[in-house]
Design goal:
Elements (H helix, E strand, L loop, with lengths): L3 E6 L10 H9 L2 E4 L16 E4 L11 H13 L3 E6 L9 H11 L2 E5 L4 H8 L13 E5 L13 H4 L4 E5 L5 H10 L7 E6 L7 E6 L3 H8 L5 E5 L4 H7 L13
Parallel strand pairs: 1-4, 1-5, 2-3, 2-4, 6-7
Antiparallel strand pairs: 7-10, 8-9, 8-10
Helix pairs in contact: 2-3
The structure holds S-adenosyl-L-homocysteine (SAH).
Amino acid sequence: MTGKVALVGAGPGDPDLITVKGLRLLQNADVVLYDRLIPMSLLEQVRPTAELIHVGKTPYQRGISQAEINALMIEKAQQGHLVVRLKGGDPFVFGRGAEEALACHQAGIAFEVVPGVSSAIAAPAYAGIPVTHRHISTAFTVFTGHEDPTKADGQTDYAALSRVGTLVLLMGVAHLAGITERLITAGLDPDTPAACIEWASTDHQRVVIGTAGTIAQRVLDAGIDAPATTVIGAVVSLAAQGVAWFDPLTSDHDDP
Ligand code: SAH
């Protein structure tokens, strides 16, 4: 009998932030293909007989390719296994979940998608920053900083981004200076509050606060590195007004 694939979001870092549905699937999995940025203690939840396969890709290093991951996932399901493909945050937010879903569809493998708590929303929340606020921001936009901002024919429309409410930047540490510069040139007020959150929801969490004009230098000075999420928008000021609530030193787990 053919098995099945579940594309499961593991949440942003705290292992308790996986969904109940995701956890149940993990506990029943025969095979778990997991990424680099998942809370590793979640793997303690699997059955002793489950096969655990790390398919995480390290930035700038040649690891397992997406085609190889797809092939492995399909092969294990064709052998009759329940395959959990465990991904950081939400599988459909910069997680290549759709590519894996399509690969299953094309191979005739049944699949389901279990959304996860995305760092796009959870990282700001753990720094006391709501991505919307009734009186301050009626929209938020999540975008990737993967693209080199000095590229002339890039896909990122900085002019559009500079006008669309709260900005949430994922994969944006390496290019942060160039990205904020492009946004400011396109019309974003350099005094717009900004924050960068590293290892959100874990006991390694660090938060750096500044403005659109200063955040890149502050991040550099603090030695903030991936994984980190940057928020730019007036909502950032709510953290200092009393919404900040999370203290990594008193968090009750030590992932990742
Ligand atoms: N699917 C994931 C995002 C994958 S892209 C999700 O929904 O969260 C990887 C990027 O996510 C990182 O470069 C970083 O910008 C962000 N990220 C992941 N984990 C994070 C964490 N614990 N703290 C802050 N940002 C995080």
